[in-house]
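Whether sequence alone determines local backbone shape is best considered at the level of individual chains. Part of our work consisted of pairing the sequence of a single chain with a tokenised description of its backbone. This step matters because it turns folding into a mapping between discrete strings. For completeness, the protein is quoted in full, as a sequence line and a line of structure tokens:

_____
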Amino acid sequence: MEQKIDKLKSDINFWKNIFDSITSPVSIHDLNGNILICNKALLHLLNKTEKEIIGRKCYEIFHNLNDFPSHCPLLKMVSSEKAEENEMVAEALEKIFHVSCAPIFDKDGNLQYAIHAATDITELKEAEEKIRESEETYRNLFHNAQVGLFRTRISDGKILESNEQLAKMFGYETREEFIAKYVTSPNYVDPGTREKMLELIKKNGFISNYKARFYKKDGSIFWVNYSAKIYPEKGWIEGVAEDITEKMKAEEELKRNRDYLQSVLDIMNDAVFVDDADAAEIIDVNRRMCEMYGYTREEALKMPIGELSQGISPYSQKEALKWLNKARDEGPQRFEWLAKRKDGTLFWVEVSISFAVIGGKNRFVVVVRDISDRKRLEAQLIQAQKMEAIGQLAGGIAHDFNNILSAMVGFAHILK
């Protein structure tokens, strides 16, 4: 008998040790929810002793309730006599558990007890909520972005994913229709554009500010500027796109206007250059300026304006800057100047300087006229005037001398 008792105690201790070694809270309840047995994990969770728990109602301890909550798996198990499970919030512990409840039958098959096993999923649910919020944030950003977002197949450019903005950009009412029907490869306007793009993106892994023309759903053409990254292992390209049609039209119009103004400037006989009033550098010139000074356009641009002056007083760089400042402070200035060509030769010019704010930036507009021929003619005129004056003086002297001689001759005749 003693051996049987010792064996029974040994068996009980064996199963008790196994019961306590389970890391999840486990307890055995009667069908009314009274806790009959619990393991150490449950005691640790509740921070209570075994005496404080045994015999108490499970819904009282976990939920601060006076009766079973309607979604309690124990109630379902009692009615179905099958294992049940559910997620439950333990208000008393401010935690969320996944609870499984399994029936225990006696030898006659009658339902006697229920074994509860709980898994704390609070952190898991919090992580899921953060992921859900993050996905929701990403989804909102994706669909509400004011630029087009896309994912295309590398092989043919089939649209795999896009936001509403991109679909509207290509002339589709919905992104679903756009994704279902649009393939980029046959819709590049300019041949070879996609091939060049693929070459660049495969080489570098990404492209930035790549400009291309596409056909819309209705066949119209528009400009797109996009940046993208390639994922060769997944077989797709992801990126962002912007409709820059109006910008390209504006740039083209600006270029036409600039070409027109440049043509007007280039047919002028006077040299014209525009100077950055803050940096004191030449930023634009016409053809005549290059011819007059002997510089190429590339050499003239960004050249300090004082470089075009003779480096001796009163035609020094310092004096040139003085005239520029006078134009800024007092208004347009006009003066004659001894200029210097690239080869070092000097020549006379007439300079007109005006200060203006162009496109929000301070500029000097300088017009230079070569007056070397005029200066030479003036010198010749002065010489001629000198000779004329000498001739007039000599004539006057001769005339006066002739008057004296005439008198002398007359008196000589009388004396004779």
